[in-house]
Amino acid sequence: MNPTQLMRFVLLAVLSLLVASLQAQGPEITSWTLNGGETGSYYVQGNSTPQTMTTLANVQAVQYNAVNVYITATGIPDYPTGPFLDGNPSLAGDNGYIFRIPRDPQPASGTSMEPPLGHIGVLKNGVPIYNAEDAMSYNGQGIWLRNAVYWENDGMDCSKGHPAPNMGPGGLAQGRYHHHQNPVAFTTAGVLLSSICTLYPASSLYTPDPNAHSPLLGYAFDGYPIYGCFGYDNPADPNSGIRRIESSYATRNITVRETLPDGTVLQPAQYGPGVNAQYPLGAYIQDHEYVAGSGDLDEHNGRFCVTPEYPGGTYAYFATADADLNSAYPYFIGDTYYGEVANDNFGIPGPGNPATNVTVPGGVTDWTGNTAVLEQVNASLSVWPNPTSDQVRVILPEGTTELVLMAVDGRVLNTWRTPAGMLPVDLADHAVGTYVLRAQGANTVAVARVVRE
Fold first, then answer.
1. What residue ranges define each of the domains in the chain, with the CATH number in brackets?
2. In contact, 242 and 227? CB cutoff 8 Å
3. Cα–Cα distance measured from residue 93 to residue 406, given in angstroms and rounded to the nearest whole number
4. pTM of the complete model
């Protein structure tokens, strides 16, 4: 083996290990909050001291294989829950969730799925998220669906969560605690919509920071990440500044509820209540409509962008908020998911049935949290869009002296000397498949995998 062949062999081995490590332990594995002995707690109305539970909080296990990540969680956060002052008799309980998150999420190939009632995704602490509905409608007709964030505001705790009653074993003590909206304390907003935090404070999942990209909050059941309400101004540029990412949904310009957002004209018996102080705009799901281009996000409430956890780019949902940092419709996911959904997360309807229908297969690997070094390997090389049909843009680390495009077998396909800033890389003349980009400087080597579709 001559020196050139030896160098190629060594480089291929290193790249293979780096890419395999990144694939093996990406953010879909390393972002979860593993339990370290913490238990849940809850408030009882009239007592500002939280009561300690024996139930473990956060995520009890993260297991993965090449295709999926399996999350085992009680559904109990490590911040206090309750009280629920709208008469909800349930308490947050252990529901023994096992969720499945696809590791290689794909856009929906046919009709996009509507997020159903019940859990539609899971936060990184193992607490489920729900869609915007509260399972009730005007006159029980299933036409004008009630907006849970409006109708159930008085029953939310400080962290904007509450439990759904569990009609199976365990009863009211085993309520399914969840969030319909951005999981932050009411006190983070400029205009307070609840005073619950005064007597019953809680830290919630995170605190929004207008000067930093919001953290990864969790994953939708199609495998795409969910972020808080702040992101990069330019979705392709992590150096473009931070701003609030806005939904493209708006309240309709109506004074009567006689038509649906898609233009359907209803029969008089199907009309909703008039728009007034008792039934203001926004009280019903059908009070909202998607206005393409009016905000930053698409009809699914997401966009393609680079993020701190996905420097190479990803599709991502955002937990949207208004200018006062109160939750903004559709809160997490729009009218439909963007990707193909792992349907076994939805369980089997009916009292006593499990919360999900996920089974963990044999041969999975347990994640224990010891991946700090691997997480940093690809932190500084941003590639977008990825996958691509023709061209990607590479945001290069400071001090990069060389960028190399390589085949997965180690063959060098192209080299750029002393590049700087953002560099377009054309893949149109290359076959569909996976490639490797390597940016190298005096003290840095950053590697990203690129997929041409």
1. 3-20+377-452 (2.60.40.3080), 31-364 (no CATH)
2. no
3. 51
4. 0.76
